[in-house]
Design a protein that fits this description.
single chain; alpha+beta; four-stranded antiparallel beta sheet; two-stranded antiparallel ribbon; 16 helices
Length: 440
């Protein structure tokens, strides 16, 4: 390809991306997304999770590099949520959307960084979408602000489409593994919880149903984006999407995830899909002008989203077992782990080692998660060492007796019991302190 051809291709691509299109679709997405944010924030409050997840724990599992993110005092924490609800309302009604998206993104992400045991994929997606609304114009329609043109650049839809596509495609690719396709795990395990339902309960004990759901789930995640992109199948695909996500919401405790994906999928509709045909059409012609640095920010964001989910390949281990690179990678509904954990502490001042159960200090959610999360096991071992150091003990070593039941396999050891976890770097090679997965 000659230099002239490259320049011409670049010019045509830029012209396509900056072409003006109807802003109704992005406006409706913003309204629905804002409404969901308001509902979710109020639901978090009313369920008592502010106290249970953020305020009550004596110890918080923070993310690497974010140990400085800690909950405020109780009063300020509730004010924090009031501000979050207000910002979400402003996003919904379309008032100074970029500014309030910035406020909401910061407040919401701060809450999520406080406690790692409460990580959910859809919380991460909320942070990403609210971040994109900082960069993208979304209040040109369905907005309480006046003097809006009602048009946006085509790139607005494309950026959001790529973000949603990343979620589905990585979720689908992650399901192409032996446990999901050949053993129908963990769905076969989860469906057993519905055996007691009168009349239809026996269906859930049938292995073929678990296989059908596993294979369909993989196929759905891998292909739904393409069906939505094709105008001839778009509405049929969306109906399937709604039925699929609604079914997931009924069967499994996924919170607002299903509704978030139903709303997010609307960015694949034609830009004017929600404009009344009786209303006057907006004259759309010409192109929008992009801020000089905006394309670089958007490209950097999308590249990070493309590369981050595949970082586990750098570690050369079974990511579903070690969970090294599992978070922020759209590995949805892939594993069922039940762990048992107890620590042993040795120090110069101790004649005998002391056994410590994390259950005594941790909340129910934290204790449930720590048994199956290797980085959290190490993190708490560091916490135990620091606690004993403050009491004047020296030469402190912390070991763990840990077993895990994983995707219907026989229960096996998880963490090497002869390794001092208080001396382990969380970022170190996990093969040096984790037991290899036995596939029996």
């Amino acid at each position: 390809m000659t230099r002239m051809e490259i320049k011409d291709h670049k010019r045509r691509t830029q012209a396509y991306l900056t072409e003006q299109v109807d802003a109704s679709g992005i406006g409706m997405f913003r309204c629905l997304f804002g409404l969901l944010l308001v509902f979710s924030s109020i639901r978090y409050w009313l369920n008592g999770w502010i106290d249970e997840i953020l305020l009550s724990p004596k110890f918080h599992f923070t993310y690497y590099g974010f140990s400085w993110v800690q909950p405020w005092s109780a009063n300020i924490m509730y004010i924090h949520f009031l501000c979050m609800i207000f910002a979400a309302t402003m996003i919904m009604v379309g008032y100074r959307t970029r500014f309030f998206s910035l406020i909401f993104c910061f407040l919401f992400t701060y809450v999520e960084l406080i406690e790692k045991s409460a990580y959910l994929n859809h919380y991460y997606l909320v942070s990403l979408l609210s971040f994109l609304l900082i960069l993208l114009p979304s209040d040109e329609n369905f907005s309480i602000q006046s003097n809006k043109k009602g048009v946006v650049g085509r790139y607005v839809y494309i950026v959001l489409q790529i973000q949603v596509a990343i979620v589905y495609l990585y979720a689908g690719i992650a399901k192409i593994n032996m446990d999901w396709l050949l053993e129908a795990q963990p769905l076969a395990t989860w469906l057993q919880a519905y055996n007691h339902i009168p009349i239809i309960g026996h269906w859930f004990s049938q292995k073929w149903l678990a296989y059908l759901m596993s294979w369909f789930g993989m196929f759905f995640d891998c292909t739904i984006i393409f069906w939505l992109l094709w105008s001839k199948t778009r509405w049929w695909a969306y109906i399937v999407l709604v039925v699929f996500h609604f079914s997931i919401w009924i069967l499994f405790p996924v919170g607002v995830f299903s509704f978030l994906m139903m709303i997010s999928a609307t960015v694949f509709f034609a830009p004017d899909w929600c404009r009344s045909k009786k209303s006057n059409t907006i004259p759309i012609e010409g192109r929008v002008t992009l801020h000089r640095f905006l394309p670089y920010f958007l490209i950097a964001h999308l590249l990070i989203q493309i590369l981050l989910p595949i970082r586990h390949f750098l570690y050369g281990n079974d990511v579903n077992w070690t969970e090294d690179g599992f978070r922020f990678a759209w590995r949805v509904m892939l594993i069922e782990k039940v762990g048992s954990l107890e620590y042993r502490v040795r120090a110069d001042q101790l004649k005998h080692e002391i056994r410590i159960s994390p259950r005594k200090e941790l909340t129910e959610l934290q204790y449930k998660m720590i048994g199956s999360q290797p980085d959290m096991i190490v993190q708490y071992a560091h916490h135990i060492k620091e606690d004993y150091q403050t009491k004047g003990f020296t030469n402190i070593r912390v070991f763990a007796d840990s077993t895990v039941w994983f995707n219907a396999r026989t229960t096996q050891s998880y963490i090497r019991s002869d390794v001092d976890l208080s001396a382990v770097d969380i970022l170190s090679d996990r093969s040096s302190w984790m037991v290899d997965l036995q596939n029996e």
